[in-house]
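seq:
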Amino acid sequence: MPISSYVVRCLPADQAAVREELLALPGVELGEATEKGFPVVTDTPTTRAATELGERLQDLPGVQSAVLVYHNFEDVADDLAAAATPPKP
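struct:
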């Protein structure tokens, strides 16, 4: 499961609405807000879902930027390698 973290920047006046939108999304956790924004952690089932969710964060009304600061997908790579290995006879 890919885990990603972002720094979401928005104006203080927009934070409550942005946080409410983010909390409605599955696999999203929010960190403590600062005057310029807050950290967001996402946990998605696939790398494709991680990419789509990252794009969705950026497109939310009130979001000035959603900067990816961490992305871990090593367990996905292990799953792909196992699927590509032919079964033993």
